[in-house]
Design brief:
about 110 residues; about 60% strand; single chain; mainly beta; Immunoglobulin-like; 9 strands; 3-stranded antiparallel beta sheet
Length: about 110
């Protein structure tokens, strides 16, 4: 089982730290779908219409190689991915991080305010 956590730091912009760790007793093989190992998205909290609105995604508009990659996480080993959102508007948000691998659905989310 892969465990994940997402930390958000608000300061000069917003920084995201997505940690994925191997909580199993054996190694875990990962196959990345493309050159983007992890992606980060931010949704603005529901304004009463029943749906959150995505306002920022790290990968949006970026060129990402189509080359797949592989990694191996040993028991207890952790992989960390960090990105930042440079110019957020004040408000209440939810951040979501996703590990872009074929074998597992690994994601974490957390609310934050700017």
């Amino acid at each position: 089982m892969l465990d994940s956590s997402l930390e958000v730091t608000v300061g000069n912009g917003v920084t995201f730290r997505f940690a994925v760790s191997n909580g199993t007793g054996g190694p875990v093989e990962l196959t990345f779908r493309d050159g983007c190992r992890a992606d980060f998205a931010v949704r603005r909290e529901d304004d009463g219409d029943g749906e959150d609105e995505e306002v920022w995604r790290w990968s949006e508009g970026r060129s990402v190689t189509r080359e797949t990659g592989h990694a191996r996480l040993e028991p207890g080993e952790e992989a960390v991915f960090e990105e930042s959102w440079p110019d957020p508007e004040p408000g209440d948000y939810t951040a979501e991080a996703t590990l872009r691998v074929a074998e597992h659905d690994v994601r974490a989310e957390t609310p934050f305010s700017v």
